[in-house]
Amino acid sequence: MRDVSTYQWWKSSYSANSSNCINVATVGDGTLRLRESDDPDVVLATSTASLRALIRAAKAGWLPTGGEW
Hints:
This protein is an alpha+beta fold and about 70 residues long. The protein has one helix and four strands, in the order ββββα.
């Protein structure tokens, strides 16, 4: 895996300058890398389709909340 410091990370404009932000980087193979700003060395790899499905499920209220996982 590539060194995470070489990725070009993007942060949502909703995050402003606060912590607890999700950063996203695109990779040449078409996948995405995700990390949380408070723990930037932990990086997840995913596809755009999987991330899109997760976001849709969260917006629709289909995900458990309050530690129900």
